[in-house]
Amino acid sequence: MALFTRDEPVVAVPTAPATVSEEQLEREFVNQLSQNTVIEGNISTKDKMSFSSAIKGNINSTTEVVVKGGIIDGEVTSDSCIFVGGKERGNITCKTNASFDTGSVVIGDVRASDLVCDGKIKGNLFVDVSITIGPNAVVFGNIRSAEINIDPGAIIKGSIEVVRQSMAAVRAFDFEEEFLNIDDYLSGME
Q: I need a labelling partner for 9 at 20 to 30 A (CA). Which of 17, 98, 115, 187 fits?
């Protein structure tokens, strides 16, 4: 066994020049956590995050969060999220799309631009553009979206509100003012 002493020269190891641009790193790097990992605390990342672990805390990602059989007890805020058998207790907010397969379970509200659900959600769904509720979906909560597609077999307990931000929808009840004063209406009939 060789021991090193202070008399031996220090050898400097040259560092390799960076050959990957920051843009490539942002596009390609993924934070991955294995199934046997348990994290207690919040996670914040600019990179895509994919995990099958248990996290007790909030997740904030500026890109995508992929939950493959993992469990989250906290809020998720990201650009988009995909749940493949994942479980979540807490609200989910995605700037773009959210997707939940048949094995996914969410207890909390979900906000997204577009949403596809074939899993189970106990909470309200607030979707800006389009929502598709698959045949295996179970939703216990209110649904609000501009467009809603519900496949046969889906179970929904709650109200459904289709809200379009067009002038036609806003002006749909303009005629109501004509009938606010019944006396004026009746005097016009004489």
A: 17
